[in-house]
Amino acid sequence: MPHHILICDDEKDIVSALKIYFSQEDYILHTAGNGREVLEILNHEPIDLLLLDIMMPEMDGIQTMTELRKNYNLPVILLTAKSEDTDKILGLNLGADDYITKPFNPMEVLARVRSQLRRYTQFGSAVPMLEQQFRCGNIFLDDNEKIVTVDGTEVSLTPTEYAILLLMMKSQNKVFSPKEIYTQIRGELPYGAEGTIAVHIRHLREKIEINPAEPRFLKAVWGQGYKLESSERS
Fold first, then answer.
1. Taking the chain, what is the end-to-end CA distance rounded to the nearest angstrom?
2. DSSP state, 232?
3. pLDDT of 84
């Protein structure tokens, strides 16, 4: 079944260029010029991935991220200008999965979209229940049902946050460098983008740790990376 891709950018030339490249793939394309149109489309269409510009009229990308994460966990890739670094980080904190800086190569955008959809589809595949349940202290992850709970209460994670937690749940107490994390969850080398992992880690801590400033489980190892420390070592 073809994936539904929503491209949101108020620059018509960018939308037109992306449509040309994406039309070569088996995708169903939708377009929007601002955040309000995005939310309207999400209410009526089964969108699998969103390409979202930050600077737009009426409702910009940051406002849109804030609203859509209240109800949707689909992958979101931000389209940003070099001058929008602060907004880019804010967008990642609000739950964006990746970003691409303008001007960009449409083939890079296509590759990033394929990577996100491949990972998102992989997490939806059926696997034996007993082999896909993991626990670390009060954190429980069921990869068959795609559910994460903390103290029995379900928490909502973005696809990237889920991928990071699943990776670390499978190898508790192992230290992963940001490059390793990026490569494992994306299936490709980061080429400098591994710095975004710190943002996703911080956001993940806010959802699974009692005190994100002093994490009990998801810890940084100075100069090396991050690890999920099992309860036996807490």
1. 45
2. G
3. 65
- CA dist., res. 161 & res. 165, Å (int): 6
Please give the CATH number for the structural domain made up of 3-123.
3.40.50.2300
Angle at alpha carbon of residue 146, lines to 171 and 153, rounded to 5°: 95
Quote the tokens at residue 156.
């909502």
Fold of 130-233: Arc Repressor Mutant, subunit A (1.10.10)
Between vectors from CA 181 to CA 178 and to CA 128, what angle results, nearest 5°?
160
Which pLDDT tens digit goes with each residue over 197-219? 888 999 999 999 989 889 999 99
Neighbours of 78 (CB within 10 A): 25
Q: Where in the chain is the domain with CATH 1.10.10.10?
A: 130-233
pLDDT at 234 over 80: no
pTM to 2 decimals?
0.59
